[in-house]
Structure formats: C-alpha cells, structure tokens
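ok so for the tutorial part 2 we go from a plain amino acid sequence to predicted structure tokens. step 1 is just haveing the sequence, like this:
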Amino acid sequence: MAHSEFIATPPSGRGNKPMSVASLLRSVDAPSPDDLPGPYSEIAFCEAHGAYMISTVDEHHVRRARPAYCARCERQRQLEKKLARAAFPARFREASFRNYDVTCEGEADALAAAREYAQPFKATLRDGRNLLLLGSNGTGKTRLACSVAREVIAQGYTALYITVRDFLGMVSSVWDQKSMTEEALFATLTEPDLLILDEVGPTRSSEHERVLLNDLIDRRSRELKPMIVAGNVKVRELRDRIGERALDRLREGGSKAIQFRWGSRRTSRKHDSEQFSI
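step 2 — the prediction. this is what the tokens look like for a chain of 278 residues:
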C-alpha cells in the first residue's frame, strides 16, 4: 500500500511546533483523517534542519508517536553539553581538526597523527593507547589536544581537560575541605573515556607529586582509559616530572609521542615534528 505523507507547516514564527494532520486537513477543507485510505505520517519542521516525522498512523488509524523534537538538534544539544563538561579552556572551546591551522610540514604530520588517534576512537579505547604532545611554548599542543577531544566527543564518548596544577589543587582541596574523599576524586578522573593532562612543565616534581601523578596514570591505565599528556618538555624531562613508572604506563598499548619542533604560533614556525614510540 502506498504511503501518503502529509506535511504540517507551522505558521511563521512558531519554530518547531507541529500542526496536527487533522488541523492541516481542516485548514484546506479536506476529508478527516478517518476517511484516509491508508497510512500516513505527521511531520513537523525544524528551522535549522527541515522536516522530521513525529508520528505515524497505520491503516487501522492507530497513531504511533515519535519524539516530538528534531533528532539532529537534540544530538547537537547533547554534544554541546558534553563539550561543556569537558572543561576546555575558553580559548580552545571551538578547536577542531577543521580549523587547526597548518603552516608547515611538521604541523601537517602532527595533525595527521592526531586524526589517526581519534578516528575511530573505539580502537584507541580498546588498546588504552595514549598520546604525548611535547614541545616548547606556543606550538599548538593544547589546541591539538582539544581538537582530538572534540572529535572523540562527537563520536559519543566523554572527555575531560585538566592541567597538572588543576589536579594537584583538587587533591589539596580534598584534604583541606573534606568535601569528598581522595578515592572519589580519583574515581571521577578515571571515569572519562579520554583525559587531557596539560601543562606538564620541565621542573622536577616533588616525590609526593610524582606519587599522585603516578596514581592517576596507573588507575587509568588499568581501566584502558586513554590519556593525552601535553607539556613543555622532552621525554627525558617528562620522566623527571612524572617518574619512570608513570612513563612506563604511558608507553603501553602502542602509545606515541609527537615532539613539536617548530617555533611558537605567536611568532614563526619553521621546523618539523618528530613522531616516535615512547
């Protein structure tokens, strides 16, 4: 039996609010829906995405409702909520692979490696694979990390951005305020599918800080939860910052490091990147 489709166009200024098929038919002096010979659909309009179905009526006039909203708009709303929870720095909230500025071969190579890491993220998550973005100030490490996270979130996963200073401050706050337990804090930081740990500096950490960083990295490694670690360091300096044991954890699962060897994005960019297994 042919499927008859009746489109109910909302009056100007009423957004997505649908008209019933019966109302539409009455408005054009047509027969009532009970007189229709076969199944039909009730359609609403989204100003951004056009028509979408909100119900179907079969040949026995049984109406089956569907979600009364535009599914594409709802997906966008959910994406925006996840992006907000990811806590990107304001400067990088709109960072993406699409707007990542490439001006030298090294940046092109780094972007390609980041795309491979993120697409598809299912494989990265399966292996618990990490990505290290290492280099001097202003070379685009944080922007690229947030671009990866945006792509991961668009695939339906969760991500969170924190700095080393944020993390150590969270631990201190737990001890000072007793608002939550340290165990609960580590559980919270282990939950996201991807964690960005940024601003790993070249200064040698205290033994206590290395213990805390090792604990975080170890917990996520055990759960096969990937991390992007970004910092103004080389690999040997990263070892001093987080400890040998934590660096070994970051090597697991076929993880890679990208050394950003070009100049600051704020000045000139002349050099290339170097990719290598950790």
